[in-house]
Structure formats: C-alpha cells, structure tokens
C-alpha cells in the first residue's frame, strides 16, 4: 500500500511565510539580495515574508546553535499567523538538526515548506511525518533572481502551492542558467543573467508508464542522512518516483553510481516506480554522458532495466527550477514524454 501524505493548505495572496535559516546563516552577508527576494515575492504573489526569530542572527551564531534553527521551524509551525515556511538558502549541516526536529509538530501543523539542496533534511522530515513538502527555489536563489522572477519559476510555484489541486504536466524550461552573479554587488540585482536555450529532457530508458509518489532531494545531503534517524523507513520509499539532484560540489558520475548502488542494496531501486534526474550542475557534456552510462549500468545490475528514467529535468541546482510536490502522486509516460503531477 502506498504511503499517504497530508497536503498542506494552499497559499493565498495574503499569506505570510516564515523565512528560515535552517542551514547556513550566510544571508546576513547579502541583505540586499534578501530584501530583493522579499520584494519580488510580494510583488508577484502578494506573500509577506517574515524572518523567523533566529534567521538573521548570522553565520557564527547559527553554526553554533543548531537547536535555534530547529526552534525557528517549530515556531513557524505553531504560529497561527504563519501560513507557510520558506528556506532562505542551503548549506551543508542541516543534518545536525535531527536530534531537535519534532515530527509530531510537523504532523499537527501541516504547512507548506519550500526549499532545496540542504533543505533535503527538512523535506524528508516532513515526509517522515506524513506531510507533503515542496522541493523548489529558496529565497536567495530563484526568488531573488536578477532582473525579476522567471516566468517558469512563477508557473511552477503557482501550480504546486497556489492553484486548486488538479493534474498538471511538468515541462522543460525554455532556457536555463548557472551563471555566477555576485550577490553582494547590489548593482547587479537588476541585471538579467545570461541564459542558455533549453535542451529538453532525456528519457534514458523504460517504455511502460508508471506511477508513484515523489521522494528525493540532493544526493550529497541524502548521503549524509543515510543510516541516520532522518532516513525514511523502507515503506516510505516503496513504490516511489525518485527525484535526485546534485549540487555545486559536482560529484563525479562514478560517485553518483556508487550512491545508486547503495539504494539498490537497500532494496529502494527494486521497489521504485521511476526516476527523475535533475540537470547536473557544472557537468561537462562528457560528464553528463558518463553519468547516464552509470545510471543505466546500476539499474541493469539491480534488475531494473525496465525502470522509466527521465534526465536533465529542471529542478535543484539550476535556474529556473520546477517546484516538485514531494509526496504527491506523479505519472511517468515515456512514450508520450510526459510527467504528470496528480491531484
């Protein structure tokens, strides 16, 4: 039986979202970027962004006090004036929050949580609590995009978080960028970054359609979680469509293959319904092809040459990125080239 996840209430034009620093406190070094994100979100969606009590206390304080970061999450969940939760930026140590996270509070106060990268720890905490969560842009990334929010980002957020629940197809971004822009230089905030025309998705294998609930996140963070209490139980993985992405750490394609072998050894791949692979950040064309070879190799080893796999999907460490409702049912149709999120 597929696991059931509570869907949080949809966001409205008058919703208030708590801005959370659950990972790095880097935001205090780029407050101009922070205010740009707050302004752009308000202009586009009408949402008011309210910093959590510890969110702007700086890198040193938050690094030394992981419980304060977890306290901010709990504050936002229990605060009746807060409608949603938004990650300000990622980092590399959200795994340190595990001893302090209260899954009962997440379960008792299901609110939409949005983030990616190191927010994988919190996204999976929501799934472990039986609540859907949203893998999508952080405040300092696509929500503070230079020159304004990208229409692709806006469309993804509205479909996942605002519009009444209904089926919708995910689609490739018309253009993409990983161009570096100095967030500390406020004169660049209004200068649109260069984008590359989109090159579509790549269906690596699988002919039959499949359906399952979405689960996943950043592979490097999942590796930190593996074997800890933050790792979802086998039944949460059973029948899932895995959504996996890599970070600016640029793990070697072979390393991705080794992580997938671990999933095979756990039985995750044997019971998976499908696999979405994100556009890998900073990979050369040769690395991309090597990655695809490793994915096919490991799936053959696991007896899953039948598993539908679509790669180069626009989520994770790419811009603009989709918002994926983790816990929602999705249907993969390789012959039609469609990925459909179900209500």
Secondary structure topology:
Layout: E1 16-20, H1 31-45, E2 48-51, H2 59-64, H3 66-78, E3 84-87, H4 103-108, E4 113-115, H5 120-128, E5 133-135, H6 151-162, E6 168-170, E7 175-176, E8 196-197, E9 202-205, E10 210-218, H7 219-225, H8 234-237, E11 240-245, H9 253-266, E12 274-278, H10 285-301, E13 309-313, E14 324-326, E15 329-333, E16 338-341
Parallel strand pairs: 1-2, 1-3, 3-4, 4-5, 10-11, 11-12, 12-13
Antiparallel strand pairs: 5-14, 6-16, 7-8, 9-13, 10-15, 15-16
Please sum up the structure shown.
This protein is 30% helix and 20% strand. It has ten helices and 16 strands. The strands form three sheets. It has an eight-stranded mixed beta sheet.
Task: Give a written overview of the molecule.
This is LD-carboxypeptidase. Keywords: Carboxypeptidase, Hydrolase, Protease. Residues 20-136 form the LD-carboxypeptidase N-terminal domain. The chain has 343 residues and is of the alpha/beta class. It folds into 2 domains: 16-166, Murein tetrapeptidase LD-carboxypeptidase, N-terminal domain (Rossmann fold); 188-341, LD-carboxypeptidase A C-terminal domain-like (Glucose Oxidase, domain 1), CATH 3.50.30. It has 10 helices and 16 strands. The protein has helices at 31-45, 59-64, 66-78, 103-108, 120-128, 151-162, 219-225, 234-237, 253-266, 285-301, and strands at 16-20, 48-51, 84-87, 113-115, 133-135, 168-170, 175-176, 196-197, 202-205, 210-218, 240-245, 274-278, 309-313, 324-326, 329-333, 338-341. The strands form 3 sheets. An 8-stranded mixed sheet has the order 6-16-15-10-11-12-13-9. The chain has a 6-stranded mixed sheet with strand order 2-1-3-4-5-14, with helices on both faces. It has a two-stranded antiparallel sheet with strand order 7-8. Strand 12, helix 10 and strand 13 (309-313) form a beta-alpha-beta unit. Helix 9 (253-266) packs parallel to helix 10 (285-301). The longest helix is centred in the C-terminal third of the chain and has 17 residues, at 285-301. It is globular. The mean pLDDT is 98.
